[in-house]
Amino acid sequence: MATVELETPRKRLTLADANRDITRPIQKPAGRYVLLVLLTMAGIALGAGAWFYQIAVGLGVAGITHPVMWGVYITSFVFWVGIAHSGTLISAILFLFRSGWRTTINRSAEAMTIFSVMTAGLFPLIHLGRVWYFYYLMPYPSQRQIWPDFRSPLVMDVFAVGTYFTISLLFWYTGLIPDLAVLRDKVAGIRHKIYGALSLGWQGTVNEWRHYRRVYLYMAGVATPLVLSVHSVVSWDFALAIVPGWHSTIFAPYFVAGAIYSGVAMVMTLMIPLRWAFGLEDYVTEDHFENMSKLLLLTSWIVAYSYATEFFLVWYSGDPIEIESFRWRATGAYALPFWAMIFCNTVIPQTLWFKKVRRSVHALFVLSIFVNIGMWYERFVIFVSSLAHEYEPASWGIYRPSWVEISILIGSFCWFFFWFLLFSKTLPVISIAEVKEHLAHEHHGES
Amino acid sequence: MSGVLAQYDTLDGTVEAIGRLRAAGHSELQIFSPIPSPELEEAMDIHSSPVRIWTLIGGITGCVTGLLLTSGTSLGYPMVTQGKPIVSLPPFVVFMFELTVLLTGIFGLVALLVHARRPVIHLDPNYRTNFSVDRWGVFVPADGERRSEAERLVRETGAVDVEVSQ
Q1: What was the ipTM of the complex prediction?
Q2: Residues of A in contact with B121 (CB under 8 A)
């Protein structure tokens, strides 16, 4: 029997342990869990109610108006697309680099990716106002032979986010197939039938595994450039416009680094309570959090460097409009969100230089929430403060989110957590096959 | 089908059993594993998978589709926007790339299902539920003397459970 160590062990684990421990949460939910689900459903009801009110009354109930036509909705869209990024980073890029520590966190990170893209996708629809016209962005043969303008970054966005969602879902599902077979073999009744259908009759034959390994590798291979491209495309929604504060060539790498940064923070926000609630401390260890912390520290420096570069380039260009835009960003009506962004994204993460912080799940949980807040503010500051203070003083204005926008924002967080809660009770939150592969090969190496 | 179904609790034991069975002329083995193992593929002398061809075809199809969709629709309704050429390759490359990735992934999953012969409704009669837990399975189709020889070989290589079917 394979009884070997997984990263930093608390006990020696066997393959059967992995099956038992990881599938343990998939049982009748406790009262606390039901309460949490009900709370998220209440938040979804709040957001949905606000959206229906907006549809019934009109987009005027949102705070967006001239000159700030992109407010909380677009901020939240970019925020949620950004959150999605670390899932693919952890599942695909770290897989290609053979980083063993990804094994126990990739499944949840991938689930997070899917749910955050599902959340992000709602915001452009909400922002449209007349949501029933969303299909105008799709390339379909209409009566008048009018097609989308394929030179527009907004149409690129539809393709990029749509592809990202589809590939993330396929990648996630492919990884789940062997684990669904584990669940099929473990449970009885209707659940046996459901897991059996979802596992497609997987039996773990050598023939199945050989095709599976290659497909997983190729999917990781194509998902890697995809993760870098999606937020680059999202950044071009802004960078291709001539708005001062947006029209910058650094936006693509700046956005990608920020996306990975916020995504890793969200993985921590989700994984820390999850491993405590499901007793997975033997699998998701302090070593995993320390590695994630190092990634967080690295990306925080890339983000800090990007902030500094933005200001430097503006000063170096000598363009008075850009200089005024950035002066106002730091000292004007949105100075508070700006400095909150600087504090949360560049100052607080410096505590990660200390090993004690990197290995303290409590400290990391608090820190990750600060980063989430800081990264939401980052997008808010870039979009809103730039639009509010463009070229002509006559067209300057102040934007304040309305209760409708705030309610929908709260609803979006509840929507995201609702799906994650459902996932955590119905599917293995850690990849059983990968953990067992790790254990068996350690054993193979020892013998 | 008559034969011998052996269960192992280590990867090493399974690899050894495959080697000895194949050396004895039992080449039509059915192997079950709880984990993906390159060692088992090597032992079975399997080195590649045709799914790579599918993913390549998917990628090329996606790239060409992206080019045809963007250029064809632009030429079909030739309206100059933003002062750019009707066929503006730099922005169209984004669509070509996205569709390349999209169809590579979709073709890859389809290839997995086709070549792994999934989905199936009924599991193989030689499948045991502990193959998804911590056991490796080796089924040797054989009868008569050959079955006795296979049984002896799997016992010698440390099988923890042996079933002989007539």
Answers
A1: 0.94
A2: 201
